[in-house]
Amino acid sequence: MRKIILLGYMGCGKSTIASSLSKNIKIPFVDLDKKIEEKTNLSINAIFEKHGEIYFRKLEHEVFLELLHSPDELIIGLGGGTPCYANNHELLKGEGVVSIYLKASIETLFQRLAVNKSKRPLLADKSEGEMKEFIAIHLFERSFYYNQAQYNVVVDDKTIHQTVLDIMDLLA
Ligand code: S3P
After folding, report:
1. Alpha carbon of 134 to ligand 1 centroid (Å)
2. Which is nearest to 5 in space by CA: 158, 169, 148?
3. Is 140 part of a structural domain of the chain?
4. What span, in angstroms and rounded, lies between the C-alpha atoms of 162 and 48?
């Protein structure tokens, strides 16, 4: 059954947009990070602290594959780094997959992440000044992977509702 995959940098709104899309089109939403947290009984922060990032990336790949192979139609919200490891980007073009990159500018991401970085191990220890430069470089490095998605939807200056309508247009 079809999988609708939402991807994009931390703070682009994947989970919020996916939840709203799910209500509108009546397809269940699974958040990959939440699924990993449930399986391990650990928060993403704790996984990074206890086991390190490489362990997390392996787990992320396995759980992503599991969701892709599930018999159900699903909306899957990826973590910000998911497409950039373990050849996950190749899975964005698989059969029965619709992948959508939620594209946000550095400024939008910075504004959103500055107030909400503690749950994100890659940002938690950064000052505001460091964060802006980090986001700019990181987004540039990751763009190749994000651009493997079948569709792009720009989220800057749009309400959740407008973004969901844009996605529904693509799916129609
Ligand atoms: C990460 C993004 C996070 C989470 C982990 C690593 C990344 O997900 O998977 O902290 O590498 O960008 P969100 O994009 O949902 O914050």
Report:
1. 14
2. 148
3. no
4. 35
Instruction: Give the span between the Cα atoms of 128 and 111, in whole angstroms.
Output: 10
Q: Ligand 1 centre and the CA of 81: distance in Å?
A: 6
Task: Write down the residue that tokens 């996916």 correspond to.
Answer: 18
Q: Domain limits at 77?
A: 3-104+146-171
Nearest to 2 by CA among 147, 78, 99, 145: 99
Q: How many domains does the chain have?
A: 1
pLDDT by residue, tens only, the chain of 172 residues: 899 999 999 999 999 999 999 999 999 999 999 999 999 999 999 999 999 999 999 999 999 999 999 999 999 999 999 999 999 999 999 899 999 999 999 999 999 999 888 889 999 999 988 999 999 999 999 999 999 999 999 999 999 999 999 999 999 9
* Tokens 């220890």 sit on residue: 125
Ligand 1 atom closest to 9 (CA): 14
State the distance from the centre of ligand 1 to the C-alpha of 76, rounded, in angstroms.
14
